[in-house]
């Protein structure tokens, strides 16, 4: 992976290099996890973490190719398709809790 000196844009996976920098730091990872889980009931923490990680990986898979594609709407269309699938993958108890928060 490229670092600050090598330049993230030169990395084979520039977004991955940045994620490694952020998520590789235990303090940053714990802060993000705490922020995501704070409002969620304890019994749903595992389901929420699984959902957030899956959504993040999905978004990353959509955004990386979007940096080089000429069709600017393609990433949006891919996200809309993925979002539909992600909603179906979410744990039913998590979905019920999220719906109750509206």
- Provide the low-confidence segments as ranges: 1-5
Count of the separate structural domains? 2
The gross shape turns out to be: flat
- The proportion of residues in beta strands is under 5%
Distance between the termini: 41 Å
Tally of strands:
0
Estimated helix fraction: 55-70%
Order of helices and strands: HHHHH
Supply the helix-strand structural class: mainly alpha
Alpha-carbon Rg, integer: 16 Å
Can you describe this structure?
The protein has 102 residues and is an all-alpha fold. The chain has 2 domains: 1-38, no CATH class; 41-102, no CATH class. The chain has 5 helices and no strands. Helix 3 packs antiparallel against helix 4. The longest helix has 22 residues, at 45-66. The radius of gyration is 16 Å and the shape is flat. Residues 1-5 have low confidence and may be disordered.
List the helices and strands and how they pair.
Layout lengths: L13 H10 L2 H12 L7 H22 L7 H16 L2 H9 L2
Which descriptors would you attach to this protein?
single chain; about 100 residues; mainly alpha; 2 domains; 5 helices
In short:
The chain is mainly alpha-helical and 102 residues long. It has helices at residues 14-23, 26-37, 45-66, 74-89, 92-100. Helix content is 68%, strand content 0%.
